[in-house]
Amino acid sequence: MARERGDRGERDSRDQGMVDFVVKIKRSACVVKGGRRFSFNALVVVGDKQGKVSFGYGKANEVPPAVEKAIKEGEQQARRTKKLSLRGDSIPHRVIGKYGASKVILVPAGAGTGLKAGPGVREVLQAAGIANILTKVHGSTNPINLVKATINGLQQLRTKEEVAALRGVKL
Question: Which domains are present in the chain?
Fold first, then answer.
């Protein structure tokens, strides 16, 4: 579930053009001699809303430093990833992303359909700039695995021109 920031649960990152969504914050406890010591884990999705998307995972003793660490890691990964092949504000073809026990099916949709996706998948698609898509999750609903499976599915996308070049045919 994205944390509410402004009206859409998003915020501008330090780099211009990058936006981040907090997908999940978890609290873990370690029992020590004097009681419990709490720490926090943050899962954040970072993207430029134009086809570049990645995620970051940060851990700290308080929530704000954990989120900052996750954003920093996500921005570094976003620089290394290639831009996705999109068709307008949707995807060019149906694709299945898998990671661990999670499977995410991404189906292109016509204009005006909107973003039909659950938590975890929705944040990745918003950060990538996809506005019209249908999704279905099978298997595990662990947020980390869902984010990784969605990114895996998006990286499998190819345009007609890319497929034609790979096959050595002319359109």
Answer: 11-80 (3.30.160.20), 95-166 (3.30.230.10)
